[in-house]
Write a structure and sequence with these properties.
- The complex is a heterodimer of chains A (309) and B (249).
- Chain A is an alpha/beta fold and 309 residues long.
- Chain A has 8 helices and 16 strands.
- The longest helix of chain A has 14 residues.
- With 249 residues, chain B is an alpha/beta fold.
- The model of chain B has no long low-confidence stretch (mean pLDDT 96).
- The chains are: A alpha/beta (309), B alpha/beta (249).
- Strand 11 of chain A pairs antiparallel with strand 11 of chain B, so a sheet runs across the interface.
């Protein structure tokens, strides 16, 4: 069966989540086509062609796809998808925005955020904040699936030599337009791709105190995250949220600071290889998943940690 | 304008739901049920638009068996004007829910539809996008700000790197993210008044929708447990363990 993957990119380069999605496609097995829909996106398409294991790259380069508006891209993907057995996308905010529309246009179910491939039609996915892992079987002819990146090790970004084919398929729903984007610019690694993540919770007390974590993060080359409680309290923006309804991370080292460990937060980080918890409440649930727990006031411990590394 | 909001009955967010030991499904026996938190944010946003004089009527719809009327009543107590229950006792999956909501949309002809971005049971994050596709509508998913003006809606969206704002023609579908608003609590007088507000019941058959599942659950299981860790006494010990035992820094 052939597999179509909606590549995640910003026209200039391919996003790492695409590499995990290719890995999931390898687990399913079949010819892999990457679709790069954008505007002036030749650079992203060239990167897509180098990804190991990719057979073909389709490029839809047109102004209507400039900001990858879901209304237009979903029409394009649904139109192309009829020739494929699978349509995959990363379970990122971009993939989640477009793919359910594709599924509905094809009159098939979407299987969200799979973490395992059992067979050609059977997949594992987390439900109830990851507390109930469901094995589900699809009866649809075209399987539309989003991929949880942390569950599939990324394939190599280099080594492939797929053919690039430009397609002239312009779909403009005419119902939406891009107004503006405010993207946080940071020298730190992206949360979902970082090897080390240090996150703060309600215990941080305010946004200013996140500087303590940023200082540690810069020494370790880590990304900075937050619990929902810290986001709800307005300490930090939502794109830092790790959890059931935020980002799912699985770094080599996760340091939870002043985070109690609500199930919604654990859902976003409990697959990390090593978990450290720093919390002054020794009964905090975070300690149940921590490999190393330190019962201490974070305002003493974090500066001390900063000095020690 | 009229706004349609959907509310889902789910296990309360504070409950840790477990897989049944026979693997047949999630164990919801004696579990406290509540309105899905993101749906609550959707209801709140509709009420704020009504308070701002933009929205004139709020219709709250839920799909499920009779007990989901409780969640519709909650929405009515918060400030929705009318309720619709689509009565079904079977498990309805996102595509079928979107088709049922499309049928309700066609009957009600709202200019704005506000849903939660995902329900905290299935964690699917699909229904709003699917309804938008089926009805040929634009969508503003994961909204942190909704501004209705000049026959359009501007939606600021929470995306992975930050925020994106899109302008949508009406009617449009909006799905809510956390920071859109902070839902209010229903007052006792309003809870009493909600009991008298109209609540229509209809069935998938009446709406002409086939709700046959496309996906079957083969089994469910608990996630892999993490092995118990240790407590360290000091930052120095922690750094030593991370360097020499775990070898991660």
């Amino acid at each position: 069966m052939s597999i179509l993957i909606l590549a995640e990119h910003d026209n200039a380069s391919l996003k790492a989540a695409t590499l995990n999605t290719v890995a999931a496609a390898n687990a399913i097995g079949g010819d892999i086509t990457l679709l790069v829909a954008g505007s002036d996106c030749a650079a992203a398409a060239a990167e897509a062609a180098k990804v190991a294991g990719v057979n073909k790259v389709l490029v839809a380069d047109n102004a209507v796809y400039a900001h990858q508006l879901a209304e237009n891209v979903s029409l394009l993907v649904a139109d192309i998808a009829k020739d494929y057995g699978y349509v995959l996308a990363p379970a990122t905010t971009a993939g989640k925005n477009v793919l359910p529309r594709v599924a509905a246009l094809l009159d098939v179910a979407q299987i969200s955020e799979i973490i395992g491939v059992e067979s050609a039609d059977t997949f594992k996915r987390p439900t109830y904040a990851g507390n109930v892992i469901a094995t589900v079987k699809s009866s649809d002819a075209i399987k539309v699936i989003t991929i949880r990146g942390t569950a599939f090790d990324a394939v190599a970004a280099e080594g492939g030599s797929a053919a690039i084919e430009n397609i002239d398929n312009v779909q403009d729903a005419g119902t939406s337009s891009f107004v503006r984007e405010e993207v946080a610019v940071s020298d730190r690694p992206e949360l979902t791709a970082a090897k080390i993540v240090i996150s703060g919770g309600r215990g941080m007390q305010n946004g200013e105190n996140f500087k303590l974590l940023e200082s540690v993060a810069d020494k370790l080359g880590a990304a900075v995250g937050a619990s929902r409680a810290a986001v709800d309290a307005g300490f930090v923006p939502n794109d830092m949220q790790v959890g059931q309804t935020g980002k799912i991370v699985a770094p080599d080292l996760y340091i939870a600071v002043g985070i109690s460990g609500a199930i919604q937060h654990l859902a976003g980080m409990k697959d990390s290889k090593v978990i450290v918890a720093i919390n002054k409440d020794e009964d905090a649930p975070i300690f149940q998943v921590a490999d190393y727990g330190l019962v201490a006031d974070l305002f003493d411990a974090v500066p001390e940690l900063d000095a020690a590394i | 304008m009229k706004v349609l909001v959907a509310v889902k009955r789910v296990a309360d967010a504070n409950v840790k739901v477990r897989a049944k030991s026979d693997g047949s499904g999630a164990d919801l026996n004696n579990v406290k049920m509540a309105i899905n938190p993101f749906c609550e944010i959707a209801v709140e946003e509709a009420i704020r638009l009504k308070e701002a004089g933009i929205v004139t009527e709020i219709v709250a719809v839920s799909i499920g068996d009779k007990p989901c009327q409780e969640q519709i009543r909650t929405a009515l107590a918060l400030g929705a004007d009318r309720g619709i229950q689509v009565q079904t006792d079977v498990e309805v999956q996102p595509l079928a829910i979107a088709k049922l909501l499309k049928a309700v949309f066609d009957k009600e002809k709202p200019e704005l539809v506000i849903f939660g971005k995902q329900s905290i049971d299935g964690d699917n994050n699909q229904t709003g996008q699917m309804l938008a596709a089926l009805a040929g509508l634009p969508q503003g998913t994961f909204a942190s700000e909704v501004v209705v003006a000049d026959g359009k809606v501007n939606v600021t969206r929470e995306i992975d790197g930050g925020l994106q704002t899109v302008a949508l023609t009406l009617p449009a579908v909006v799905t809510t993210d956390l920071r859109l608003n902070e839902p209010r609590y229903a007052s006792l007088p309003n809870i009493m008044k909600a009991k008298k507000k109209p609540l229509d019941v209809m069935t998938p058959e009446e709406l002409g929708v086939d709700v046959t599942p496309r996906v079957t659950t083969v089994k469910v299981e608990p996630p892999a447990e993490r092995a118990a860790g240790i407590k360290v006494a000091s930052v120095a010990e922690l750094v030593d363990k991370l360097k020499n035992e775990a070898k991660v820094i």
